[in-house]
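Need fresh eyes. Consider my entry:
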Amino acid sequence: MKPSKQAQELVTTSIKDVAILGMGLIGGSIAKDLQDSMPDSRIFSIGKSDDGDLATTASVITGSLDYSEIGENISLIIIATPLDDIISVAAKLIDQLKDTRKSKPLLIMDVGSVKKEITDNFEKFTRENPGLEFVSTHPMAGTEFSGFRHAKKHLFKGKPWIVCPHQANTSKALNLTNAFIQVFNAIPSTVDADTHDKWSALTSHGVIALSNLLFDFVWQTDPKALEIAGSGFDSTTRLASGNPDMHASIVFMNSRYVQEYLKEFLKFLADRSLDDLNLTFFQNNQKHRDEWIRSLRNTKFN
């Protein structure tokens, strides 16, 4: 699943140096992959942080820059900060760059997991600031861990990486964004922001809530039962060990759809009994899930 020659050439000719805001799991994993895929580019973090220091010490990045030090050689900025900081960080970038980058376009993309509010603001920022183009994206990859210590190469390989365009985006910027995503052997997919948030509520954000609710239910009901809990319970509640700040931000920012689908799920449960969980039920679920897994494994770049 290698990027096309055309995509690789577009990236290498269009992007010189990259700056990353937020050197945690996602930002750090991006930096580690860029070491191999773009060896002629320098990678910087923006702002001082413990994660940035770790990445510098590990020689994953060249070093850290202040906002005021973002020079002409930076062709791409990736905002990988906590979700609820993305819009304010983007506004801070505008304050620093709007008077200095008009002659040389700069692509700024985020990797946040809730898109509608961010994409709406990115459209406004792009319209009002010539030379700065904001593109909203979301790599569908991660673990329950956080911080640079848990960053790893190939985190995005074979995973969908969603791009949520807005009306102010140019085809040039979107083509470059999709080409850049392919550098990670990820699968670029264009989805409007509202649909992204609906689907994420069903397959990701609601799962965060359910994983935590299930663990809390067992903990509140009979915590001694955890002494015999096996790998099934472990894997089902894995997300309960995730970053609490991140999870709270995700559920809050996508609360409309998370709440809607949780209510539908409760009705779905209420309309069923143990009699419905018969052999046919389990056979159908096995068939449908296995088909889904096979489709993921067979996905290839065009």
About this structure: The domain at 196-272 is CATH 1.10.3660.10 (6-phosphogluconate dehydrogenase C-terminal fold). The mean pLDDT is 91. The chain is about 50% helix and 15% strand. Residues 193-221 form the longest helix (29 residues).
